[in-house]
Design goal:
Elements: H1 2-14, E1 18-23, E2 33-38, H2 55-69, H3 76-79, H4 104-109, H5 119-124, H6 137-151, E3 156-157, E4 162-165, E5 171-175, E6 180-182, E7 187-188, E8 193-196, H7 204-214, H8 235-240, H9 244-254, H10 268-278, H11 289-294, H12 298-303, E9 307-310, E10 329-340, H13 346-356, E11 363-366, H14 375-380, E12 384-387, E13 434-442, H15 453-457, E14 462-469, H16 475-478, H17 496-500, H18 517-520, H19 549-565, H20 569-572, H21 577-586, H22 596-607, E15 608-609, H23 613-617, E16 625-632, H24 636-655, H25 670-683, H26 695-700, H27 702-712, H28 716-733, H29 736-741, E17 748-752, H30 756-762, E18 780-782, H31 783-795, H32 801-822, H33 826-858, H34 876-879, E19 895-899, H35 902-914, E20 919-924, H36 927-939, E21 944-947, H37 953-965, E22 971-975, H38 976-979, E23 988-993, H39 1000-1007, E24 1019-1026, H40 1030-1041, H41 1055-1062, E25 1078-1080, H42 1091-1108, E26 1133-1135, E27 1181-1183, H43 1244-1249
Parallel strand pairs: 8-14, 8-15, 10-12, 10-13, 11-12, 13-14, 16-24, 20-22, 20-23, 21-22, 23-24, 26-27
Antiparallel strand pairs: 1-2, 3-7, 4-5, 5-6, 9-10, 17-18, 17-19, 19-25
């Protein structure tokens, strides 16, 4: 090292990089003290010779400087050659040796809060024109800093230089990559904009609105041009003013000068209109809008839009543009702000503007389907334009704007301002004809992807100020995976620091006995005093953090934001400067170079505006948030499905010997592995497979698989695993009820006290016919069938047992017919019906909310009044009183128990317990899981909305607004990839994750939808996980990786998770059922009617049973559009009598046409139900008889009677001994595969014939479960 130092010192002295002096002391005459004087590159009178050096010399000098400076001490005692220098344990080094192991997220969190140069600027924001809301102090400081960045034209220090103190107390500035030393820090031009990256949920939207309104009167300047001046003009000036600049512009626009005799004399109004629109900061005229409109001056003022001309560069002689007549391109100067918003957040911005701004603020919401206004309209009529750029990104033909003809439109009556109606160019967006004052990109982390639409379209626009608004500027700030994967970039900085030893792992200093004699006479400039026996060895420190490929990708995204989007001049002029001086020093193979982390921090601080979280918490305290993981066991039938899946994975692992391409965990089968893991996660909620997870084939091939494994000499552990797999597959294959459950993907629910014929008629497939009526091990039904059955019984509370059976068979036949007609599965038809009903309910609710808002505005209704609608209650059974006649229903004792999904049972219990007081957000990465939750919520009659892939984008916005403003919908089902970012859902205070989320930052983003500013309730978050499965292992691994500085790898790439998945562990029987439901099927109806009605109700039920027990041929019409009578307010119940006819009410009708007979129930009568009502106009129960009925309604109808809508028709000639109804079971449609695709189809005979020919190992071909 001594020889290398001397060579470095000699070279640097020779080429005027340093100067050196030396001395010795009597007490330490064996040592030489050398003073190093750095020669700055900006030394006065050097005449540039220190900057313009030979490239080879400069490159060699950089390496020598890094070697030399790494060993220099900055201790005064060392400078004065004092003997006690060597006894210092922590000497101050010129290049610090303390490791800066901060990650990008930690650097981001350590950025200082903004400090405004003038406190008056922040105080002035206490009252902003047009802003209804009041700002917190930290919000005022952020907005004041944004205004300061926009308005300041002063230069700023170059962030690539770090400040280094000298021994004389003077500061010098070092560029660590080039090793350039300067006496003064170079200054660079600022950028008018930056990145607003306040914490999630701290009010970034209102900060942007405050910035817009605080600078509402400011006008942008024309773009700079070195070739010619660009004066600000206006339409009235171009046609009336004789100033040279206007005359020249008129000449360029019209192809020649204007004759003197046609120049009009401008009036005072013309001059004032021109001055008000062309001043850099116009005085506030908005408060005089009504007065100016009354004088017919407001429209001329608004139509006199300032603009400037852009001339096209002269085309080459071969260009076809020389043949086209060219005109200057007109660019309108607008004081408006263009806010680019993701399409799913447009409606939320609309609500935020209405919430925070007064009606004086004019804004335009531009959806994808809306007509794009003209450039003149965008520039003059709006203060804020909210839009997405996807549609306009294809209209970028700027050249066509140079061929537009000059405006010759007539004047506005009473003024000399033209009423311009010139059409725009179809291939050029109106956004390209406006010089925008400001562009704001919400959720602007997408601008970090250079291929994104924003970064391709925005360079064609003219914008003075640009802002990115996001809580996650890059992936590592919160761990979000944004943009495309980026390959490693080449390093241009070299690895000279590695030669110094600063990038090696720190080692303990050697003992004095190990020192060589040559060191004793060397030059002493390094840290350790090798000759002082009192010197303590340097302690070992933490290992140096190595920046990964993901870190480099995030640095590249930050570079794109700074250089490409914001256009910071220092980095925009040299596209590789950020990579050379920031990224490469950080991503060196042995760790970051000295000062590299500090340079990155200074670069981020130059453009970012954010407060530290502790500074925000000092002013605003969010409600507490508790997060708990709920561990539970699987239901026995769900456990069989899960073990069947694991059996397939285990057989594949053993039979493929975990090596060849058939192995599921082979590196080339990553896609199949990810799908298999997703299906296992789905199975932990509930899943079904129409191929039964291939358990038949595993069970049939069991002995062959074992023989082949033993013949190969596989370890005994694999033999045991294979035997377990075969045993679990055999157990599932022999369970008839489990096999019946696999036909349909819905979650079955337990039912009790349900008559077997009704149970069999209303159930799907073989769920009701697998066993006899009495020996069923478990009675289960799907939720949607239970809902249909309940709706029928509630509509027709006196429906008989036989009619219920007939209705069930009719529903099965109708379902099969619909599936056959649409060539779709049962699930697809049900999903379509569910979506249609949900959209209809939301449309009705929005109408109610709009009506309520109008009445509140007009003073008719008080704020907060709930409209009386069918949807105005969170739970249907308590909203409407149920008929007491349900006490006589055959279903009165039926109860609904828990489902076969323990997670679903827990969710339903939570919702039932808290839905009246709190709203829920339920997240899942699987749309199928959310569909299962939706079925359960329908069964317990709690209104919900969905935010998933299946919902159209425009409807998603409606659903968000409805959920936030309506008390009807209590649960929002959210697909994680669509709903975890950007939404404001503070009406919810309970959050449930249906499965653990591997990426903690994605989970945090989802929680922030509710835990943000404006939230008043404590937030309760619960994550559901199954014990002893990959979900529990995932939670343990997440805890282990908590605080890791590197980006968390994908689930299947993490070493711990991969080990767990490669060695599947089958689930054993659990201790018992968890979170079981027990609900009355028909709801809590009044089963104890009043005394005067009790006899009538019992007699009516007896009459029905006796009358309908006769075996008479009858043509029956079943109508399902009826509504139950309501006790507290009788209403018209449209009941067409067939089976449910009550007593003598069915007397003969003298009319041929159907007749309504008034029957009054409950409060409408004092006597028996069949006596006339004492009221003048009793509410009618619609009793429609068959045509030409003579006698009782239960007698046979004439042949000519053809009631409409007959579902069950009897033959005219009925054998008394034959059953009344004779039907066949509707065939069940085949289910679509939704996930793992094993070897489909199993033929035992074919398997036996091909057993001897099978040589390839048993393998999983895909992963297609339901």
């Amino acid at each position: 090292m001594t020889e290398q130092l001397l060579l470095a010192l000699a070279f640097l002295v020779e080429h005027y990089y340093v100067r050196a002096t030396c001395c010795t002391t009597p007490s330490l005459n064996r040592f030489l003290f050398v003073r190093i004087y750095l020669i700055p590159h900006d030394l006065p009178n050097a005449r540039g010779r220190l900057r313009n050096r030979d490239a080879v010399v400069a490159a060699q000098a950089r390496g020598y400087l890094k070697i030399l400076l790494a060993e220099v001490r900055q201790e005064p005692s060392c400078w004065d050659a004092v003997a006690t220098t060597f006894k210092l344990k922590d000497p101050k080094m010129f290049v610090p040796r303390e490791l800066d192991n901060r990650s990008m997220a930690e650097i981001y969190s350590d950025l200082p809060s903004p400090r405004v140069s003038s406190t008056n600027a922040a105080d002035a924001l206490s009252s902003v024109w047009g802003l209804r809301s009041s700002l917190y102090n930290y919000q005022r400081r952020s907005v004041a800093m944004m205004i300061e960045k926009e308005a300041s034209h002063q230069v700023v220090p170059d962030p690539l230089y770090v400040k280094m103190p000298s021994m004389r107390g003077q500061d010098m500035f070092l560029q660590p990559t080039t090793m350039e030393v300067l006496r003064e820090c170079p200054n660079i031009a600022p950028v008018r904009g930056g990145i607003l990256c306040e914490e999630l949920g701290t009010g970034k939207t209102v900060m942007v609105l405050a910035l817009i309104l605080a600078t509402i009167e400011e006008r942008p300047d024309p773009e700079d041009c070195d070739l010619y001046e660009r004066p600000v003009m206006s339409p009235v000036a171009c046609r009336t003013f004789r100033s040279p600049e206007y005359a020249t512009s008129h000449c360029h626009a019209h192809g020649g000068p204007r004759s003197e005799e046609v120049w009009p004399v401008p009036s005072l109004v013309d001059i004032l209109i021109h001055g008000l629109r062309t001043l850099p900061c116009a005085p506030g005229v908005r408060e005089y809008e009504e007065e100016l409109a009354a004088r017919n001056l407001w429209k001329p003022l608004q139509s006199n839009i300032p603009f400037y001309h852009v001339h096209r560069e002269a085309p080459s002689s071969r260009s076809r543009l020389r043949k086209v007549q060219s005109h200057p391109r007109v660019m309108y100067l607008s004081s408006a702000t263009l806010v680019v918003v993701p399409s799913n957040l447009l409606r939320q911005w609309d609500r935020e503007v209405l919430k925070h701004c007064t009606s004086d603020v004019k804004y335009k919401l531009l959806r994808i389907k809306d007509r794009m206004p003209s450039a003149q309209e965008l520039a003059s009529q709006y203060d804020v334009s909210l839009s997405g750029l996807r549609r306009e990104s294809t209209r970028t033909n700027v050249e066509s704007l140079f061929t537009a003809q000059p405006c010759t439109c007539p004047f506005i009556p009473g003024s000399r301002v033209p009423d311009c109606r010139c059409p725009g160019r179809p291939d050029a967006s109106p956004l390209l004809q406006v010089r925008w004052k400001r562009l704001v990109i919400d959720e602007g982390h997408t601008s970090g992807n250079i291929e994104h639409t924003i970064n391709r379209f925005i360079p064609t626009m003219s914008i003075e100020r640009k802002w990115i608004v996001t809580g996650t500027p890059t992936a590592n700030t919160l761990g979000l995976s944004l943009g495309r994967s980026v390959s490693d970039e080449a390093s241009d900085s070299g690895d000279e620091w590695q030669a110094v030893g600063l990038l090696r792992e720190p080692e303990l200093s050697a003992s004095p006995a190990d020192q060589q004699p040559a060191t004793e006479s060397g030059i002493v400039m390094n840290v350790d005093d090798d000759n002082d026996t009192d010197a303590d060895p340097e302690p070992a420190s933490a290992p140096r953090r190595i920046w990964t490929v993901d870190d480099r990708a995030n640095l590249r995204k930050l570079s794109v934001m700074i250089a490409k989007f914001l256009g910071v001049p220092r980095f925009k002029s040299d596209g590789k400067l950020f990579t050379r001086c920031v990224s490469s020093p950080l991503c060196a193979p042995q760790g970051p170079h000295p000062f590299a982390v500090q340079v990155l921090s200074q670069a981020m601080q130059m453009v970012m505006v954010r407060h530290r979280i502790e500074d925000v918490e000092n002013e605003v305290g969010l409600p507490p948030m508790t997060h708990k993981t709920e561990y539970m066991d699987l239901d026995p039938y769900a456990r069989k499905s899960y073990n069947a899946m694991l059996a397939a994975v285990a057989v594949n692992a053993v039979d493929s010997r975990r090596t060849d391409i058939d192995y599921l965990f082979h590196p080339k089968r990553l896609k199949e592995l990810n799908t298999a893991v997703a299906n296992m996660s789905q199975g932990l909620f509930w899943s079904a497979s129409d191929i039964l997870y291939n358990v038949d084939q595993i069970s049939f091939d069991g002995e062959e698989l074992l023989d082949r494994a033993r013949g190969r000499g596989v370890p005994q552990a694999d033999i045991d695993l294979l035997e377990q797999s075969i045993r679990h597959a055999h157990a599932a294959a022999n369970d008839k009820l489990w096999r019946a459950m696999q036909v349909h993907e819905d979650v079955p629910f337990r039912v009790s006290h349900l008559d077997p014929p009704i149970f069999a008629a209303w159930n799907r497939g073989k769920l009701g016919t697998t066993h006899g009526a009495e020996d069923l091990p478990l009675r289960v039904m799907h939720a949607n069938r239970l809902v249909q059955l309940r709706e029928l019984v509630r509509r027709r509370p006196l429906i008989t047992h036989g009619a219920l059976v007939d209705e069930g068979l009719g529903v099965r036949a109708l379902e099969a017919a619909r599936c056959e007609k649409k060539a779709a599965s049962v699930q697809a038809v049900e999903k379509e019906d569910l979506m249609r009903r949900m959209v209809s309910e939301v449309d009705q609710e929005m109408e109610v909310l709009m009506k309520r808002a109008d009445e509140e505005e007009e003073g008719v209704a008080e704020p907060g009044t709930v409209m009386s609608t069918a949807l105005a209650s969170p739970c249907a059974p308590t909203a409407l009183a149920l008929s007491p006649l349900l006490a006589s229903s055959p279903m009165r004792q039926t109860r609904v128990g828990g489902s076969l999904s323990t997670k679903l049972n827990f969710i339903l219990q939570e919702v039932l317990e808290h839905h009246r007081d709190e709203k829920f957000l339920i997240f899942s990465s699987s749309p199928l899981t959310l569909a299962h939750v939706a079925e359960g919520l329908s069964l317990i009659e709690v209104k919900f909305l969905r935010y998933t892939t299946e919902i159209m984008r425009d409807k998603r916005d409606d659903f968000v607004m409805t959920f936030e403003t309506s008390d009807t919908f209590r649960v929002f089902l959210m697909e994680l990839k669509h709903a975890a970012r950007g939404l404001n859902l503070i009406s919810a205070s309970r959050i449930i994750f249906c499965e653990p989320v591997w990426q903690p930052d994605v989970e945090s983003q989802a929680i922030k939808r509710a835990h943000r500013m404006g939230q008043t309730r404590p937030i309760v978050v619960k994550t559901l996980a199954i014990r002893s499965t990959a979900e529990q292992e995932m939670m343990d691994r997440r805890q282990h990786l908590r605080g890791a500085t590197n980006k968390i790898p994908p689930l299947t790439s993490d070493a711990g998770m991969r080990r767990f998945l490669e060695s599947p562990t089958f689930l054993s029987e659990s201790s018992g059922e968890e979170h079981a439901l027990d609900l009355p099927f028909l709801g809590d109806f009044d089963s104890s009617p009043r005394v005067e009605d009790e006899d009538n109700a019992s007699r009516s039920a007896m009459d029905v049973e006796e009358t309908l027990s006769e075996d008479r041929p009858m043509d029956v019409t079943v109508v399902d559009q009826d509504r139950p009578a309501v006790i507290d307010k009788p209403r018209k119940v449209d009941t067409r009598f067939a089976e449910d006819v009550v007593g003598s009410t069915n007397g003969s009708s003298p009319q041929v046409k159907p007749q309504k007979i008034s029957v009054s129930f409950a409060e409408d009568t004092d006597g028996p139900a069949n006596e006339p009502s004492p009221q003048t106009k009793p509410h009618k129960v619609g009793v429609r008889f068959a045509e030409a009925v003579n006698g009782f309604a239960n007698e046979p109808l004439p042949r000519k009677a053809k009631p409409r809508g007959a579902i069950v028709r009897f033959a005219d000639d009925v054998d008394e001994s034959a059953p009344v109804v004779k039907t066949t079971e509707a065939p069940e449609p085949l289910e679509q595969n939704a996930g793992v695709k094993f070897v489909a189809g199993f033929d035992r005979e074919q398997a036996e014939a091909s057993r001897s020919r099978r040589e390839k190992p048993w393998k999983v071909k895909g992963v297609r479960f339901a």
